[in-house]
Amino acid sequence: MEGVLLLHKPIGMTSHDCVAKMRKLARTKKIGHTGTLDPDVSGVLPLCIGRATKIVEYLTAESKTYEAEVTLGFSTTTEDASGEIVSEKAVDREILAEEVLNVFSNMTGEREQTPPMYSAIKINGKKLYEYARAGIEIERPTRKITIHELILLSGINQDDKTVKFRFRVTCSKGTYVRTLAVMIGEQLGFPAHMSHLIRTKSGDFSLEQCLTFSEVEQLVEDDRLAESLISIGEALKYLPKCIIHDNLAEKVKNGAVLPLPEQFVHLHSGEPLIIYDENDTCLAIYTKHPEKMHLMKPIKVIKNDFV
Fold it and tell me: Is 247 in a helix, a strand, or coil?
């Protein structure tokens, strides 16, 4: 069994929990996820099974789309609704939609973001949330992120102390939406946190394509799980595609350096190029040779006689 399973991750499970459950259902250890979702977050979680674990990094690198709710009026330790309150300031003025839209416009594009203490990023061999749970706050390196689009999805809901509104964000890999909610609050002049989040897209994969665990369990019972998987080639269809003749397939399976087809000379070294055989089977990921520009070399062999 190999391919990508699009899981609708439920609230209350970590991404690792989802992988562990799928290993039991699919009866294989070779499963990996393509981007962590916090336990309180639901949505699109592509799981790579079998040989597809070799393409995890290419799916993880894709942009993500989320629908979130931000609450102005108080911030929390975890930057979401599960944390303890650390700062409060009643929203004592009217927040207008136009003001929020101006903030969204200013935040769109490339910018820097500091990951939250409650995150799985490792520093000195320990995850940040391990430091946070021990009451230790350490310096975190900022990272560059890209906010491709910010859209207001609701009206501005205001009571005596707080303001809530929903938004959709499409962003680059590594963006923390709960930190983005805090940043939005800062721009509006109030402490804030993310009060709800769902991932609606991961790359080209949408929530409508995803299966719940109940549906997966039924597919396993009906012995139809394999046919529900997206093929490796389909999962990588957004990347440049090179079809080779069968007489070259064995060389590709053995990781040989090959001549670079003329139509791909524009690629930069390091850019992936997907190699398919004449049966449209994904064999390997290649890239332009860094020194010999007329050649291409393998980054990863997906299919060979040994795997």
Answer: helix
Rounded CA separation 210/260 (Å): 37
The number of beta carbons lying within 10 Å of the beta carbon of residue 246 is 9
For residue 153, give the amino acid letter.
L
The topology (CATH level 3) of 64-197 is Pseudouridine synthase (3.30.2350)
Domain 240-301, CATH: 2.30.130.10
pTM of the model: 0.88
3-class secondary-structure state, position 213: helix
Domains 64-197 and 240-301 share a fold: no
Select, from the ranges 5-9, 133-137, 262-266, the one with the highest average predicted confidence (pLDDT): 5-9
> Model confidence over 121-157: pLDDT tens digits?
777 777 777 777 877 777 777 889 999 999 999 999 9
Distances from the Cα of 61 to the Cαs of 32, 95, 127, 172, 236, in angstroms? 14, 35, 21, 8, 12
Catalytic sites, residue numbers? 38
